[in-house]
Structure formats: structure tokens, C-alpha cells
Design brief:
Layout (H helix, E strand, L loop, with lengths): L3 E7 L4 H11 L5 E8 L5 H8 L4 E3 L8 H14 L4 E4 L8 H6 L4 E5 L11 H8 L3 E8 L9 E8 L6 H24 L3 E4 L8 E4 L4
Parallel strand pairs: 1-2, 1-4, 2-3, 4-5
Antiparallel strand pairs: 5-6, 6-7, 8-9
């Protein structure tokens, strides 16, 4: 079975990127990171890529006149490395339809909530403000909506009485690392299948049994 070729988009510290790199190095994930792209120069994620011997590139969104022009540059960089799957690992930019069409059904994102609850920004703060007792994280395929694509896997995390945004966010983030690697391993094993939406329903993901 061919190795999964990844392109990872980052904007900051890159701990989810590090989880991917570590899993590959430990032979827990049959994948290669062909390219790491950051929309911001000088971030820690770029140092992580360099330390792992992975090629990286800065495509600074501030240097482009429109989101479409920025996404064109992203697509060109990823296609030049024959990227099969795009992973949004703390990438803080909204993708245009142009980018989604370039990688249809081949973009995954991790979100710090149990979707469809608390989509968008500040998901941890939303959970605390709502007073839920359980939150978590979700890995989903990306579509044209905001965190509305088919959910692949989720992991639940209890909200403790003493939690604030920092403590809850840290526990969720630790679980994100394991969940993202688990999902990528399933995709690499060709065990993830999207079932098209029927009338009045949404597309859903089926995890095929291990062969």
C-alpha cells in the first residue's frame, strides 16, 4: 500500500505537526510530510520541520492582494510536491472554494470541540460559557462551511469544575495530537470512506474494518 504524502499547513507553534512527525519517525504512521507551509514567517512550526529534515516554505498571506491569489500560491506549492492529503494543523486562514476544488475531499482539519457543537473560533471559550460537562476534539474533512465537513473521529474530554480556558484548552490540545495521528493512520490504510449525503441528511464517514 503506498505511503500517504502529506502537505501540512501551519500558522504557529506546530505541536500537531510535531505529533505527525513523531508518529512517522516511530513507524506509527505510514506517511511522508512532503511540505510544510506557513502563512507566517518565523513561527516555531518551521523550526520543527527543519529539525525533522522536512522541506518548508513560507507563503505570507500579507504579500497577496486577495485570498484567491494567496490560495493559488498555496495550491501551486502543494501540487509541486505531489501532495495527496492536506492537513490543517493550526492553520489560521479561511480557505477559498478555489483551494477546496484543488483538493476535493482531501483536506482534513482538527477542531477543539465535539462538532457540530461550538464551530468557528474560541471553541474552548464557547464550551465554558455554555456550561457543558463534556467537550472534546474532532477531526473532519473540510468543506465550504465553517467546521461543517464530515466528521471522521472525535474524542470526548470532561470539563472540570475548576477549568478555565487555559487548563481545558491544554487538555484538549493533548488529545488532539493523538486523535489527528489516529485519523491519518486510518486514511493511510485506506479505511476512511465518505458516504454521500442523501435527501435531508449530511454526508458521513464510515471507518472500514481492518483487513
Amino acid at each position: 500500500m503506498p505511503t500517504l504524502d502529506l502537505g501540512v499547513l501551519v500558522s504557529g507553534n506546530g505541536t500537531n505537526l510535531q505529533a505527525i512527525l513523531d508518529a512517522i519517525a516511530q513507524k506509527k504512521l505510514d506517511a511522508r510530510v512532503r511540505l510544510v507551509v506557513s502563512n507566517r514567517p518565523g513561527v516555531r512550526a518551521l523550526e520543527r520541520a527543519e529539525s525533522a529534515g522536512v522541506e518548508s516554505q513560507v507563503v505570507d498571506h500579507k504579500q497577496f492582494s486577495s485570498r484567491e491569489a494567496f490560495d493559488t500560491a498555496l495550491v501551486e506549492a502543494l501540487r509541486a510536491k505531489d501532495v495527496e492529503l492536506v492537513v490543517l494543523a493550526g492553520f489560521m486562514r479561511v480557505l477559498t472554494p478555489q483551494f477546496l476544488e484543488a483538493f476535493p475531499g482531501r483536506i482534513v482539519n482538527i477542531h477543539p470541540a465535539l462538532l457540530p457543537a461550538f464551530p468557528g473560533t474560541n471553541a474552548v471559550r464557547q464550551a465554558l460559557d455554555y456550561g457543558v460537562k463534556i467537550t472534546g476534539c474532532s477531526v473532519h474533512f473540510v468543506d465550504a462551511g465553517v467546521d461543517t465537513g464530515p466528521v471522521i473521529l472525535q474524542r470526548a474530554i470532561p470539563v472540570l469544575d475548576a477549568d478555565d480556558e487555559i487548563s481545558l484548552g491544554e487538555r484538549i490540545h493533548r488529545e488532539e495530537h493523538a486523535l489527528l495521528v489516529e485519523v491519518l493512520a486510518l486514511i493511510a490504510a485506506r479505511r476512511v470512506r465518505v458516504v454521500a449525503a442523501s435527501s435531508g441528511k449530511r454526508a458521513r464517514v464510515v471507518i472500514e474494518p481492518e483487513r
